[in-house]
């Protein structure tokens, strides 16, 4: 199956929030599998960002004034369009990232899930809600969810549809405008979805995409937006948090991870070995919630290691716009270099390669075999640092308690996976793992796909949550409106303060006897 036609990418240029009449620097976007060009995209400037925010702010008030049900219906129409156009969307994201098609389908499914969830729950979650007033009968109180204004989304390259547009959907549902900076390597993935959202009914100026360098476009977004959503490295997240703190704006971030898997006695090792291939090597390991450390009880470690290494060696590495490949390409020379260095460093210090370990230039410029290491020790680069590539290490441990201790011995806390003899045992172990999400009897996908629940990290893995009610309400400001009826708190005519104030105190004390107070 060939890559998408050049006309597909050319069509999407009409959704870039940069004046096409102005001469400017461009960046060549390449097909990751081959390095061949897909198109030339203009590189945005701070002035482009300012113009995008001006357009977005001018349109946002009218968008926010629409009924929530109307905005929700647009999201549902978009969901239906994603289903209809799923093949082209997968083609585009594969071309830009080099991931296997099943991993591309994960993005499409994630967009479907998010659009369906927020289109269903937004009217209820955003509706004004009554709360008890200070004084019964005298005070009527309600809380309203007011949109932040213009939300900035700085998105990564690894899941460029899901982590750009997937984060924009709840912001749009809440009545905000959105300005997106896609990663410079993957702009078309965002633009393809903007096209569908506009066709579904989102006003053109409400959702702006400005490609460009993070140091320029990203900085300008942080300096201008009313709320920032970021997905990327922990080091960049810390910098952006400081910048948002200086401006006193809200900030949510999903950052790095060094995610553990725990396997205990009684687990079905054949099942675990097969699932672990997906858990470790989805998108060639370039996934913030994928597994990089596996802790296995010593009594089953040899058997598991043999089965897992065999499953990894059997996985098909290749470039294909269909479902024939299990694992795809890395996205860049930088990623290839990091993976190569981590493997070489570990081997030079005594680690054993159980599967993989080599670049595969015969398949394409950026392929690296899925790699399994044993005998990894603390002085090795890959022991604690996130590789963000197709590399996982196996560590035998005495028992579940040691596995939990080792799993928690990290600054990160994004995702974890637990496999035990029973689901109940797995859940007991999961509750002791310090991570924002823990999957029992799976790797990561069910937690990601559970859009009704919160998704995010603890520690160096991030702040805030996407998905669930939190993933919507974070894009709003809660505003309390309290109406005083019948009489205010001034003493009624003829009653002196010396009598009125004790009466107020007695009333305040009596409120505790009312139901719910």
Describe this structure in words.
It is a single chain. This protein has 517 residues and is α/β, with parallel strands linked by helices. It has two domains: 6-255, Aldehyde Dehydrogenase, Chain A, domain 1; 259-450, Aldehyde Dehydrogenase, Chain A, domain 2. 42% of the residues lie in helices and 18% in strands. It contains 18 helices and 18 strands. The protein has a seven-stranded mixed β-sheet with strand order 12-13-14-11-10-15-16, with helices on both faces. Strand 5 (150-154), helix 6 (165-173) and strand 6 form a beta-alpha-beta unit. Helix 4 (86-97) runs antiparallel to helix 7 (187-200) and helix 5 (101-125) packs parallel to helix 6 (165-173). The protein is globular.
């Amino acid at each position: 199956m060939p890559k998408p036609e050049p006309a597909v990418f050319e069509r999407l240029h009409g959704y870039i929030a940069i004046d096409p009449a102005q001469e400017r620097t461009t960046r060549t976007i390449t097909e990751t599998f081959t390095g061949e060009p897909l198109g030339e995209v203009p590189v945005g400037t701070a002035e482009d960002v300012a113009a995008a925010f001006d357009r977005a702010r001018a349109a946002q008030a009218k968008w926010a004034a629409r009924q929530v049900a109307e905005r929700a219906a647009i999201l549902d129409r978009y969901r239906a369009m994603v289903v209809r156009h799923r093949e082209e969307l997968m083609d585009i994201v594969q071309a830009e990232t080099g991931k296997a098609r099943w991993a591309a389908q994960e993005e499409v499914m994630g967009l479907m899930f998010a659009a369906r969830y927020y289109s269903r729950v937004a009217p209820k979650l955003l509706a004004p809600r009554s709360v008890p007033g200070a004084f019964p009968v005298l005070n009527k109180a309600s809380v309203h969810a007011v949109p932040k204004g213009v939300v900035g989304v700085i998105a990564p390259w690894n899941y460029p549809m899901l982590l750009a547009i997937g984060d924009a959907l709840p912001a749009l549902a809440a009545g905000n405008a959105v300005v997106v900076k896609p990663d410079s390597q993957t702009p078309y993935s965002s633009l393809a979805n903007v096209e569908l959202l506009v066709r579904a009914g989102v006003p053109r100026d409400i959702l702006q995409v400005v490609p460009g360098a993070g140091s320029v476009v990203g900085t300008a977004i942080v300096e201008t937006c009313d709320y920032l959503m970021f997905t990327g490295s922990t080091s960049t997240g810390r910098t952006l948090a400081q910048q948002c703190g200086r401006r006193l704006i809200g900030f949510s971030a999903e950052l790095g991870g060094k995610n553990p898997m725990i396997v205990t006695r009684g687990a079905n090792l054949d099942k675990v070995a097969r699932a672990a291939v997906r858990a470790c090597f989805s998108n060639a390991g370039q996934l913030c919630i994928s597994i990089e450390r596996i802790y296995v009880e010593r009594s089953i470690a040899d058997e598991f290691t043999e089965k897992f290494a065999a499953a990894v060696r059997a996985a098909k590495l290749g470039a294909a716009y269909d479902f024939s490949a299990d694992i795809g390409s890395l996205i860049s020379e930088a990623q290839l270099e990091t993976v190569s260095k981590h493997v070489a460093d570990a081997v030079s210090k005594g680690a054993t390669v159980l599967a993989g370990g080599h670049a595969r230039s015969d398949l394409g410029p950026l392929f690296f075999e899925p790699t399994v290491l044993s005998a990894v020790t603390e002085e090795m680069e890959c022991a604690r640092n996130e590789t963000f590539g197709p590399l996982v290490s196996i560590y035998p441990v005495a028992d579940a308690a040691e596995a939990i201790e080792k799993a928690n011995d990290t600054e990160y806390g994004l995702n974890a996976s637990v496999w035990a003899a029973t689901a109940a045992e797995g859940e007991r172990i999961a509750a002791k793992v310090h991570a924002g999400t823990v999957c029992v009897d799976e790797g990561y996908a069910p937690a990601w796909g559970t859009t009704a629940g919160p998704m995010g990290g603890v520690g160096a893995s991030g702040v805030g949550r996407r998905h669930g009610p939190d993933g919507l309400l974070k894009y709003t400001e809660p505003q309390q409106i309290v109406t005083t009826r019948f009489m205010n708190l001034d003493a009624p005519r003829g009653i002196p303060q010396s009598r009125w104030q004790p009466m107020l105190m007695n009333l305040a004390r009596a409120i505790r006897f009312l139901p719910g107070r």
